[in-house]
Amino acid sequence: MTVEPILAVDGLVKHFTVKTARGVRAYKNTVQAVSNVSFSVRPGETLGLVGESGSGKTTVGRCILRLIEPTAGSVRFQGEELVGMRAERLRELRRDMQIVFQDPYASLDPRLTVGTSIAEPLEVQRIPGDHRARVKELLELVGLSPDHSRRFPHEFSGGQRQRIGIARALASNPKLLVLDEPVSALDVSIQAGVVNLLADLQDQLGLAYVFIAHDLSVVRHVSHNVAVMYLGKLVEVATAETLYERASHPYTRALLSAIPVPDPGVERGRRRIMLEGDVPSPIDPPSGCRFRTRCPKAQDHCAVEEPALVDRGQGHPVACHFPD
Amino acid sequence: MFRFVMRRLMWALPMTLIITFVVYVALRVGTDPLASYLRVNQRASEKKIQQYIETNGLYEGFGGYVRGYLQWLQGFVTFDWPRSIKGSREVWPEFRDAMFNTLRLGLTATFLGILIGLSFGIFVALKPGGLRDATVSTSSFVAISTPPYVSALLLQLLFAVYWSKWFGQSLLPTSGVYPPGHRGFDLVLMIKHMILPVTVVVIQVVAVYARYMRASLLEVLNSEYMRTARSKGISERRVLVRHALRNALIPIVTVAAIDIGAILGGLIITERIFSYPGLGDFFLGAYDNGDFPQMMPWMFFFTLVVIAFNLLADVLYAVLDPRIRLG
Amino acid sequence: MSPRRMAVRRFVKHRAALISLIILGIMVLFILLAPFTARYGVNEAVFKTSPEKPNSFLSPRGIAWLGTDDIGRDLYSRLIYGLRVSILIGLASAFFGTILGVAIGAVAGLRGGWIDDLLMRVTDLFLAFPFLVTLLVLRSVMSNVPWLKPIVGNPTSIRFVVILFVLFGWMGVARLMRGQVLALKEREFVEAARALGASNTRIVLRHLLPNSAGPILVALTFAVSGNIIAEATLGFFGYGPQPGAGATSLGKLVGGAKGALLPGYWWLVVFPCVILILVSLCVNFVGDGLRDATDPKLDGNR
Fold it and tell me: Hey, which chains touch B, using 3+ CB pairs under 8 Å?
């Protein structure tokens, strides 16, 4: 277990300033999208990053690639610090880390043919070789026909477009892929195909993934480790097996109970933990534990002290005063 | 609501000052009042020139522009306006008369134009796609593509020149407010003189508003909530009046208030062609003479009008559209 | 099918736009072949004048299809030459104005901050005033700054007018481009390009510009007709370009109509006016057709 992590995120913080216009004056508010998030990913492994919308998981993904500038903290990729790195070096490194976006309809330039889109990283990174042949190879790799390269994105279905997005991300032979909810915009029937493709690609190419998702069911089969986020903070990190068997944060347990079980008998007898209310505004997060406003186990103490992410000795850190 | 308006008003003052300062600098550079003065008064003594510079604040350099602007502003608000370069006349009485003439022409034309334009817009939006729609849409497109002086020329040619050739007497006068030499007030004569210029402006306004109204109303009529209202069995007439027109007018009101610049622009051109002694004629006359003391009040007045109407647009929009929150 | 071909197909369906394009094509052919299509030189009288047989103010007839002007020149030929100057001014100033506007709008949209704020304030200011007033004030500033003289030339030169229209015309396009950039910048395909390591220049040239091509083309088209009309307006009031000895422009010809009005020389009024309306109408129709053709809302399945 002494393999160097390919990606190490430490104490990542991202604040956004939001202007709300009221009449002529604009009021500035700070949104704490991500506060103090740390995790690491080893080569060839998948970290599932799970949370509801507004939990900051997408922001984490963007910060890893420095598509947005982190407010504080460190992101080390293959041992190199990305935060504050010179633009040229960062551009070079983008060869090795790529992203697949959530919305396959928005992530491909409608004016470019599929082939041009897939070849763009080769062009930008000035990768030598026959680009056209490489595009065909990539299209086959993601399960599409090589003839498709001359068509336009609008001629494809959502699932096909997502495969094109994956092919583009793979073009420069990266070592790390950030998958930003890669299947949540797709029909359930198509999701499995794309998830399986991603798993196969990982086996074939030895990729590391940061797999961002909003529920635990998708992540379950592909992740080695899972990190659960709530309102910009990590609440629980564990290996996939541990998490699904012995989740100890009330929020994780609520998320787990939301996954339907295929066996109707079990499903009927199961107790679902229903979370009440909405996610509070990150402009003004609750004091103490951020989850306390919706937590079934909340006590007075939770409003006073913020629980730290503590590893209680099993390689399974949890941020809760009263873990299970 | 009150606070919202107050806050906007507080913004309007610095805006006015900044804009008019920029205009001041532009006019100082563009018209070079000192040169114009020397052109008209070629034998002015050194002392007189110096005095002219001081009374008009024509100092050089950025600091000098600021000082000159402030001096001009002080004179402007205390109604101590510098005299015109050509003929050294008082500016205010001429400006005032021109303003009333323009108001009379502009208000009449805008009112008629918007009224007719909106009616046309409604009229075609109710039956889109047919011959009626095509006719009105095409003619409004032609009208928009026709500059006002072109329609003015053609109207003058038809109603004044050729009418008198065919019927021995011209139907409508083509210039001024009254015939030359006329004294006193005469409503009928005045209206007669206004018909052609008003028509020219109205053509433009009608074309613009018919298109706005058509587009806006069609969008509302095709919206979900209109379908819901219909499906509830509300009569078509009631649907139209209660729901559609109100919602369709909201964007138009805002556009109307902001469009004031365009309407005034059409007025300037129209006034000039019909030798109508309004603000447009005033400005172009002053421009030809490079008359800084005449142009500056004009530009200040226009800045105020433009800012006021922008303010009005914001407020009206906020009043009409409950979705805009007034903090 | 490529998006461009779909747009062409939609444009062809807009009948008025198609007809307008054909008319404009014919006009362009006429002015390009002016030495052949015009029957007389720009400054040539139809015949030598004499007291018994004056050549001025002849009504339309065989030797002068559209009549003659005050010194006996053929109006038809002069319209062709005038249209040539006007269309040249319209195209040149619209083209350069659009390039300038696109560049400024792209910078403002990408950079944001104070550059953006300043740009929006300046355009607000310029667009709020009646355009003739703005144009005239700008004109006098341009002609009175000594060090600008070698660049902009004489106020009556064509170059001066083109520069004037460019300085006035970039603002609308800049606003449009800024809006496009702001909208597109949040789209994931632009973020994807950034994630690939693409530079800002590449993102603008490869992704933002092609995706804004439709609206920009439409704006360019309307700018052409706007500038032709602006030239005519300046010319009408006597502030327009004087394109050299005897040469003319639509603005000058329409301006000449003023003097011909009261004596009743109708051809000197009607024909220049009709040509001006026809040009601006056709260009506007083409712009309208382009707008329909490139509107993403009509793009079928996204």
Answer: A, C
